[in-house]
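Lecture 7, part B: from sequences to assemblies.

Below are the input chains for today's worked example.
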Amino acid sequence: MKVVLQNLTKKFPARGRKNRGEVIAVNDFSFEIPDGKLIGLLGPSGCGKSTTLNLISGLVKPTSGRIFFGEDDVTELPPEHRGIGLVFQNYALYPHLTVRQNILFPLQNLKGKDRLSKETMEKKAAEAAALVQIEELMDRRPAELSGGQQQRVAIARALVKMPKVLLLDEPLSNLDARLRLQTREEIRRIQRETGITTIFVTHDQEEAMSISDRIVLMKDGVIQQIDKPQEVYDDPVNLFVAKFLGTPPINVFDGRVESGRLFLGKEAVLDVAGVSDREVYAGIRPEGFWLREDGPLCCALSGVEVMGRDISVVSMHAASQNPVIRSIIGTENKVDTDAPFVRFALKPNKVFLFDKETEERITF
Amino acid sequence: MIKKFFKSNNLKGWLYLLPAILFLGVFMVYPLIDVFVYSFEEGYNSASQTYFGTGTYNYSYVLHDPYFLQAIKNTFILVIITVPLSTGLALLISLGLTSIPRLRGMLQTIYFLPYVTNTLAVGLVFMILFKKTAYSDGLINLLISFFGGSTVDFIEGPYWAKMFVLCFYTVWVVLPFKILILTSALSSVNPVYYNAARVDGTSRFRTFARITLPMISPMIFYLVITGFIGAFKAYSDVVALFGTNLNAAEMNTIVGYVYDMLYGDSGGYPSYASAAAIILFAIVLTITCINLLVSKKKTM
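Predicted structure of the full complex, as structure tokens:
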């Protein structure tokens, strides 16, 4: 089931004496989520991603705009008639019910012609449990489960009615680091197996990058970029997007373009033919550095961190906006840690220029 | 030596507890034991501090005393009617209060007013509302006759009318506390459960029965248990409504009976009073144990 958002806007009214202005949580959203894809809604806290999810679920009514599931306009439909499965951030498992009763709960709500026999319900619950691999936990209560297991139960409960759209609100934020890695693979697998269009909310760019088919990157209620994860990383539309994606983060420099060459401080570091002379921000990905003795970019070396797979060179430069510059280079390079300076050449496809005023990307 | 004494955490703990233990011991545990002892001493005279012998005669006397049987009957009727009724009503009102966020604060205050009002004053007001005198029929009777019914004297009339006033009054007096407890219990239920239930298309009744009720059940059990205990100990309300000669009014309660046996016009029998008090204690203990067993079973 494809999901289409058309000019979706949600304004929250001003509340109290302190915040007089109304808050625009979601501002004029229009995008289409293709059938059977896994979409990551990504952005910093307070950017409106949870509100977007709640709008799609129907728990929150939009101020204006329409929502379509397939060809059906569901904007006015209450959540229970939209055919969605929702996994809450804290899972919202009913604490007094066993896992089995939790999973059966949505099925027992079906009335009239949709009413299921006891055997069918048990069968469906067993199928959902098998999908998330919790068969042996069916008679426990949520309090007797680990965070990861609770998460699976919540997904099973959301899936048991075979929803048209599955919505996950920060599904991994309550898990520890190791479990998070495991669970995100799990979500990917479950989504592939069921083929259900899935939208999940996260503030963790790595999470979004690793499992989404598409990323929707938001800031202050406005969509910044929608694309495949690699595309967003390789081709950011503005400085915010470039800064938000990638660990270690992108290195941002104050720069200047003069007669087709990029200057960082006094050094001309890269040819950028076709860019008119102006002040710019230059963003260089950590993997965008070559270690070269005759390289144009000279940085004060402050340390080298060996991470096994590669080396992270930590250095400083007067034009850098970040406190330190982190560059990732292969272990085949030898860095003289006693030298006061380190010199780099830059990979052109890893360097992005942004207008100093608008912070929009300047292509070259 | 003293330093060592204070260093021991254990002794320090006991030291802190000492004032409470002393007071409770002198004013609660000792009297309790004393009452128990009195209840087996036949014909105890508090003036001469003498008694004839020991045995279970006091219990036998009390249990055969028609006034005591009347008091037990009254108390049980009061308990059985008012505890479920007041808890149920309080739950309904609390549900109403939590679903209207706008006027909630104001209404909560209004509902809480009876709790801070003096029992005797409220009893008088009730008496004036219900009493039929030579000069006036009372407001309630005016209403009844307005709607075409025949007037009843609720305060000095038939038994059922008096019992109705007592139950009505009791429910009205205990409601505020129960509403207070239940509204806070209801608002402590995480709204995310209601959202989850909504997404799954759960009917309102099912949401209440399967989610709200189990989640506030500890508080409901607390109210039922304290409600039982409170209703079994009813006395001052009855006095406020029907005056001090409760035996004549057929409206005595167990605690009232105990008081009458000690200080009433026919009083001066501490042995009988003690036996009656011990019987009340046994009843309350049994009911509380049953309550606890039921609530354990439910929440396990």
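Note for the exam: Chain B touches chain A at residues 190, 192-193, 195-203, 206, 210-211, 214-215, 299 (CB under 8 Å). Keep this in mind when comparing with the next example.
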